[in-house]
Amino acid sequence: MELDLIRRLSQPADTKVILCVLDGLGGTPGPRGRTELEEANTVNLDRLVSEGSIGRTLPVGFGITPGSGPGHMALFGYDPLAYEIGRGALESTGIGFEIGPEDITARGNLCTLDAEGHITDRRAGRLPTEQTEKICEQLQTITLPGVQTFVQVVQDQRFILVLRGPGLSDQIAETDPQREGVAPVTCAALAPEGEHTAALVREWVTKATAMLSGQERANGVLLRGWSGRPKVPPFPELWKLRAAAVTVYPMYRGVARLVGMDALDGGHNIDEQIAAIRAHWDQYDFFFLHYKYTDSAGEDGDFRRKCDAIEAFDRAVPNILSLKPDVLVVTGDHSTPAMMAAHSFHPVPIVIWGKDVRRDHLHHFNEVAAREGELGMFPAKEALPIAFGHAGRLAKFGA
Hints:
Blueprint: H1 3-9, E1 17-22, H2 36-39, H3 43-51, E2 53-58, H4 68-75, H5 87-94, E3 103-113, E4 119-121, H6 129-139, E5 148-153, E6 158-164, H7 195-212, E7 220-227, H8 235-239, E8 243-247, H9 250-258, E9 262-265, H10 270-279, E10 286-291, H11 293-299, H12 303-321, E11 327-331, E12 348-354, H13 367-371, E13 376-379, H14 383-390
Parallel strand pairs: 1-10, 1-11, 2-13, 8-9, 8-10
Antiparallel strand pairs: 2-12, 3-4, 3-6, 3-7, 5-6, 11-12
Helix pairs in contact: 5-9, 11-12
């Protein structure tokens, strides 16, 4: 749905909607020919399907593998091709860094390089946050001519790098090849206006690599998702409601903040996230709950751990339902099959539960059932219009 039409049709209502995003939810057949969702014991998610409608979302387009940013922007109702936000802006906003008008920012990973300068571990063994923070303090001492630099820890091996100064451009290449066994990419300009900025980034990376060279691991840096300060129509104004995000990982807090949601303290696990929603139930109309662990297991290529993560969320579903939402949506921002150990282009299962849904007489939450469901396959940006339609938050169009 176009944003102008959302503005015209959205209306306040005395209803509550919860959007649960299981990051990287979709999968492909594993060792026994079944996907992670098929293999997992999901009695409560299956109940939602029995009482609701199931289908599949297409995050960006056919054959296109989405990043987490585009995947979430689509689920929030924005066209991810029109509102492309770099990972740097998401991570920076997620940790509360205020991006200024002269800033460009990137998401960084500490990585491990071998003697030839090839990447052996893109995440440096998922370095503990405390160690990354100490390394960021070292990297903060690097200076560049004519600009300010800011290096701040995010979580685990992740950090942000912000450059501040006149004439900077985000039209520069990432240094993260997003695979191992090769050297980091040399930062280059993607447009003439990026030449000066690319030279500054190359200088920073050279100094950072020299500074970390004595370490056995976390002796290199990878940068991706360059972005300036994005401009996005505020979600609460579009939908005429009060919206809150409950996340554990900062990046997802960032994408929610960028679209104008309030970010609540989500604690450290799904139970604490649900408790946060319960504590603020009367203050908001819409809650976005992000669940990371399905994606982490998928990216690590750990099929069984992804099944376990799905089952852990499934056990929390009765607690979510006890809040008595009018509409509950469970889906993913993209697929991360453990057999591929990476994001993929595959459509993502979605179930919508609530009043006035058309039951499709299916009983399992998985990719096979989703192919047969009432909802069919549709662009992910249409998920919330469907949910808000069920919640009575869209007025009639036309006479």
